[in-house]
Amino acid sequence: MKYVAIADELRGRITRGELPPGARVPSTRRLAADHGVAMATAAKALAQLSQEGLVRAEPRSGTVVAEPERRGGQRGLTRERLVRTAIAIADAEGLAALSMRGVAARLGVAAMAPYRYVRGKDELVLLMADAAFGERGYPAKPSGDWRERLTLGARTLWSLFRRHPWLAQLGPITRPLPLRNLGLHGEWALTALSELGVDAATLCDLHVLFFSYVQGIAIHLEREQHALAASGLSEDEWMDRQLPSMGPMTTGRPVFAKMLRELEETGYDLVLDDLFESGLRALLDGVALRFGHRDVVSGKAG
What we know:
It is flat, with a radius of gyration of 24 Å. Helix 1 packs across helix 3. The protein is an all-alpha fold. The chain contains 13 helices and two strands, in the order αααββαααααααααα.
């Protein structure tokens, strides 16, 4: 996003002292001209810095760099503020864009100040993930059968991955993260699955399968975010450009070719939310059939 790049550049100049407290920041018009963007984009970059307390509007002077004490400073820095700022960066730009120096710059504090609260980026990411997983919980008194409760668990996790796409990128399912709030989601799912009456190993396998399904679909949320930022094309625009090159892929593949022809006629949108829901139903149908709960297969549940 262009406004983010402009804000990052100005933030860096402020942090390095190139723009000291009280110095006038380039105007919206100047930023738009220098970066080849619309006035609204430049204004959004300045608004972002204003929200962070790095700059302020000064009568008859335009926008100027705020005094350190007016930015909150290191004295106003807390672990919670550090974590929430890092989450905001990862939400907007992806986990790869996150750095300790970048978080410090966004907070308007010295580059080493965050290290008073965390040992480094790895610890910060764990704190971010724990905070993110803790944003949604479950009813104190569960209701419904195992399938209804597992559906609620899946949709709750999906909503968190939707809100924080980077969450799905953190690690393989074979190396679960030691996060207290992730454990709350695990307990909810395990309690529902335990009603199937399976042994501990099967219960663990089913939970891994369940979580892997939700995470596996969610992985594409951030990938699409990156693809959009890199190409500037929406999913539909990108697909329209690819259609002419699909011909060689269908040669000798009649079912593939027939499917594409029908989709061109009827129209088709690959919507991850819809795919998540249909896949979840299929997964739970399979579990119900495998473990003898045919009464709760979708379409048969009472």
